[in-house]
Structures are given as structure tokens and as C-alpha cells.
Amino acid sequence: DVKVTQSSRYLVKRTGEKVFLECVQDMDHENMFWYRQDPGLGLRLIYFSYDVKMKEKGDIPEGYSVSREKKERFSLILESASTNQTSMYLCASRNTGREETQYFGPGTRLLVL
Amino acid sequence: GEDVEQSLFLSVREGDSSVINCTYTDSSSTYLYWYKQEPGAGLQLLTYIFSNMDMKQDQRLTVLLNKKDKHLSLRIADTQTGDSAIYFCAEYYGNNRLAFGKGNQVVVIP
Asked: B77: which DSSP letter?
């Protein structure tokens, strides 16, 4: 079974803090994704990575950056957290050529005060 | 981005069938998916259908795809209390992108 894990289930940070959200997958997938999920808005893609050190902006990249130094790990960085970044953050991974399966982690619920 | 529409809420009695509907916009989508999200959890891939299929059955789940109307449905037979969740449909529209609907909350009444 594919396993996608996220470093924290719940996180509380203050406005202006730098925040790191970590995601690790154990199935050697090339592609990894960060989404945020908000009530009434569904899932929106922030960034994705198709290989080590490669990244591409999603639909809402503003205020975020990412890092993929190793294949199994994809980090989402909030350089200066703001209250409108309070959300549920979901990481996902998928193999190239296997578009039929994209697996998600359990999510990190971030509250920015 | 692509637009995927779902109705928001469905209540169903335990043992009945439930049907969740979804419309999508990209006729060139190759894969369409149904995900389940239980409270406080991530998304679990339930099933998917390739665009050259009309129907796919997997135990209690039946997926119907109407490409002409760009309509996707998920039928859950013999609905159980453990089926209470939010269900998301999604379409793959290329370049590593999935577009998700806003989700449909299903509440199963014992």
C-alpha cells in the first residue's frame, strides 16, 4: 500500500512566522502535490513537483514556496504566515504514467493566529 | 482551471442506495475519480474510471460515465453508517493536474 505521511496533524502558528509542512511518500513516486482545502472551495492546487528539485506552480501559489531535495520528501513553506492561510493542507503523490491513482496524506490542519 | 460541479448534501437511510452526481467540463479528461474523506482525515481514493468506459462496478460501488453530457455518478449500494463522509469527484485534465469538485456530504441515518 502507498503511504503518504505528513509531519503534523495540527499546527498553530502566529502571523509572520515561517512555517514548514513536510510530506513523505514511501513508494518512489516521481510526482508530489500540495493542496489546500477550504469549506465551500474544495481542493485547490498550490504547487507540485515532478522530480527532485523540480517544481511547478499550481492555481494558488502566492504566499507559498516548496522544496524537493529528495524524491520521497516534499516540503511546503509559508515564508510569513498570514491568517488567510489558516486551512487544511493535503499532500499527495503519484507515479508518472499512472494517472489513475493519486494518493493523499492525512492532512495538516493549520491555524494562524 | 477546470470546473467540476457537485451538489452539496445528501442524506440516506442505512441499507438504501445513495447516488452522488458530478458534472465536469473537459471532454478530453482521460480519468475521472471518486474520493472519500472521513472527518478529520485526508482523501481516500475510492475508485476511478477511464474515459473510454461507460460503467465500472467495484463491490458496492458503481460508477457511471456519460461522456456526451459530461456527467459522472457514484452509486453506493446498501449504504452503511461507515459511508458517511464527504465525496469528491475529480477529473484529470493533463499536465499533472486534477480538478476537484467542492464535495458532497453524505449522511447515513441509522
From this structure: S
CA distance B100 to A3: 21
Q: Tell me B2's DSSP state.
A: -
> How many CB atoms lie under 10 A from the CB of residue B7?
14
State pLDDT tens for residues B76-90. Answer: 999 999 999 999 999
Strand partners, B33: B48, B90
Closest by Cα among A26, A107, A109, A75 to B44 = A107
| Alpha carbon of A79: minimum distance to chain B alpha carbons (Å) | 24
CA separation for the pair B11, A14 (Å, rounded): 39
Chain B residue with the nearest C-alpha to that of A47: B97
Q: What is the pLDDT of residues A75-100, one digit of tens each?
A: 999 999 999 999 999 999 988 776 66
Reported confidence tier of residue A4, pLDDT bands at 50, 70, 90? very high
Distance (Å, rounded) from C-alpha A40 to C-alpha B62?
A: 26
Q: A1, A55, A100: which to substitute to probe chain B, counting the most B Cβ within 10 Å?
A: A100
- Averaged pLDDT score across all residues of chain B: 89
Q: Which residue has the cell 513537483?
A: A49
Q: Please tell me the distance in Å from B90's CA to the nearest CA on chain A.
A: 10
Closest CA to A96 of A48, A58, A46: A48
